[in-house]
Amino acid sequence: MANFRHLLSNYFRLSVATVSFIIMGIILFSLLVSNVTPNVVDVNVYERAPRDIQSPITIPLEEQTEARKRLAEESVKNEYTFNRDLALLQAEAMKDLIDIVITINKSEEKKSEDEAQLTMDQKLEQIKTTIDKSDISDETYTALSKASETELNNMKNLGPDVVNKILSNPIMVEEVEEARNEAVQLIRENSNLSYSLRNATEEITRSFIIANRTLDPEKTRQKRKEASDKVEEVFIREGEVLVKSGSVITPEVYDRLKKVGLLDQEMKTYPYYGLFLFVLIVMAGLYYFMKEEREKEHFRKYVTIYALLFTLTLVVMKVLSISTELGLTSLMYAVPVAAGAMMIKMLFNEELAVVSTIIFAFSAALIFNEQTTGNFNFIMSMYILFNGISGIVFLGKTQQRSKILQAGFFVSFIAILTVASVLLLQNGKFTSLQIGLDLGCAAISGFVAAVLTLGLLPVIESSFNILSVTKLIELSNPNHPILRKVLMEAPGTYHHSIMVANLSEAACESIGANGLLARVGSYYHDVGKTKRPHFFIENQMNMENPHDKIAPQLSKTIITAHPYDGADMLRAEKIPKEIIDIAEQHHGTTLLKFFYHKACQLTDKEVAESDFRYPGPKAQNKEVAIIGISDAVEAAVRSLSKPTPVKIDGIIRKIINDRLEDGQFDECDITLKELDTVAKTLTETLKGIFHSRIEYPEETKKVEKQ
Fold first, then answer.
1. Measured between alpha carbons, how far is residue 72 from residues 62, 106, 317 in Å?
2. Please, which residues have CB within 8 angstroms of residue 133's CB and are 6 or more apart in sequence?
């Protein structure tokens, strides 16, 4: 049944925590939803723009980019290749043609009268078969066949030389005719051939003059590709003014407005899906980050306080963002986000404070996006991040209230530097008034954060009765009314509590438990003894022990009442529950051995051990368990006449083993390894307290005289 109640309690605790996170998520979504709602404009073609309309996003203009690429390709001229070897090749080919004609003519001359001579048609056919030059006329071949060898050699010397000379220069296709005419002119100027052979030479020479500078398709294509690749993609940039106020909206401008989504009157849901995912990631991350705390009883209170600080910080940012919409842009730098970060650090821990500051920074990027063209204000996000982290870092390990104001000044200093860097990086022309307002609001942010922290922290601590490091430090003040009461009414108990505090703090820190909580809890663990101080041996100075005159059962009742008397006194003073638990649990259900044995000696009847045990409960955490050990150890070691390290170590380990065997640690998560570490730490600490003292010579002489 007890296990069922425990499971039900855990389920209820986790359910409440889950609901708290869902509520935080809903609040975060509600605060940010207006900042992601798409902006639309209601305009038509040829109307005048009611205001400057800027693009909310960056999108590529593919059509314009392609048009620019085509224009760049068209601007690239064709690439040509100049074949320098063609002049020699064509000249040699012309010589080969003439040599063939000479060879055929010689072959005919050598034939005897009896041999049949080739007809002119046969000669032409043989020449054409040897060299394929279809652009040379039959009349030219006929003139060559009738020419003498001398004339042909003269032609062979003149024609190829002209071809070689003409083709030594680049000739494009459209320049071929001009080059051929030039070749004809050279032949006419340098020829002594007969009319018919000169005409043949001109025709053959013209046929061998061709274009030697031709188009290179591959090179041209490569050049055009390079030109196309150099064209930058055309964008409509985020923040680009698409149309100025009062200007006519042309069809082109209207098309641009449509492309960036400013004319889409239908509600776009994508931003809301994105915001939902953002909130889901934030809440899931926080829930996972607090996984260790979820198992603790105080988690409901823990998450409630965190949700309050989380929501308050976001609401303050949202309120200040509204002022920027009214033109008071400098006020956004006055946001006291460091207050939330510092309070989370002081009430919880540094890791959670850093994570929360990062979340605040991301949220600020959306909350303060009214002055930006897109959805994110990265400058404000950076400012919030630096603001919160600076407050966390400056507080450090010591979290005294006096240091909060100092942290505020440090935050202001960092805020001023951040704003100054932003102004310089923007390289804008700002008026002296604008710069002064921005820096002034940045300076105010740290001061306001410190004031809010100092004002809200006590309210939260008292309202939720929580135990922060700051509260612990305050409770450790010797001038606290309860501690003054212990000092004045039970001085022995006060000294005993101080010793227990020293021992328990060192032991807790050795195993990673909360040493400060152990120290402060030790100060208050025996306040119940002030109700009947003289019934406790540490307060019985120069007086009889009242327990010698009363029954052991009554002594047991008086002794076992002090944890609960102390708990009642602490509750009346509204001391945090963690301190009350220490006072109530530090004896657990241990046995009052002295009075139990005394009772056994006074009667022949069997005495039940349960009648002489503390009612409990047993220690619920490591700190209470260690304080209980330290309490017993201090009393035991103090009773030793000549404490030595060996005796001290032996008595410490006996006390721990007795409590372990008695089941006093069954309800807390302390391990055997940690108990061994505690034993070693207590031994070392007590060795330092009960160290051997040097016997000075003068004191020795006084003793001898006595």
1. 15, 62, 51
2. 97, 204, 207
Residue-wise over 240-276: b if at least 16 C-beta within 10 A, else e? Answer: eebbeeeeebeeebbebbebbebbeeeeeeeeeeebe
Write the pLDDT tens digit of every residue in 279-332. 999 998 888 888 766 666 677 788 888 999 999 999 999 988 887 766 677 888
CB 613 within 8 A of CB 590: yes
pLDDT 10s digits, 580-627: 999 999 999 999 988 988 889 888 888 888 889 999 899 999 999 999
Among 100, 102, 95, 98, smallest CA distance to 160 is for 95
**CA–CA–CA angle 52, 56, 58 (5° rounding):** 120
Question: Residue 666's Cα: distance from chain center in Å?
Answer: 42
| Cis peptide upstream of residue 617 (ω within 30 degrees of 0) | yes
> Cα dist. 59→20, 45, 75, 178 in Å?
40, 22, 27, 55
Fold of 471-690: Hypothetical protein af1432 (1.10.3210)
Closest CA to 172 of 82, 280, 234: 82
Q: What is the pTM of this model?
A: 0.60
Q: CA 437 to CA 329: how far, in whole Å?
A: 9
**Which residue type is seen at 149?**
E
SS3 of 592, please? coil
Closest CA to 613 of 587, 589, 585, 583: 589
Give whole-number Cα distances, 468 to 307, 367, 395, 448, 482, in Å. Answer: 17, 31, 14, 22, 19
Which residue type sits at 634? E
Distance CA 434, CA 438 (A): 6
- Look at the block and give the residue holding tokens 């307002």: 437
Domain map (residue ranges) of the chain: 1-35+267-466, 80-108+117-215, 471-690
Q: What is the pLDDT of residues 334-352, one digit of tens each?
A: 999 999 999 998 888 888 9
Strand, helix or coil for residue 215: strand
Query: Which helix H or strand E contains 280, and what residues bound it?
Result: helix 270-289
Are the C-beta atoms of residues 566 and 457 closer than 8 Å to each other?
A: no
Contact yes or no for 212/82 (Cβ under 8 A) = yes
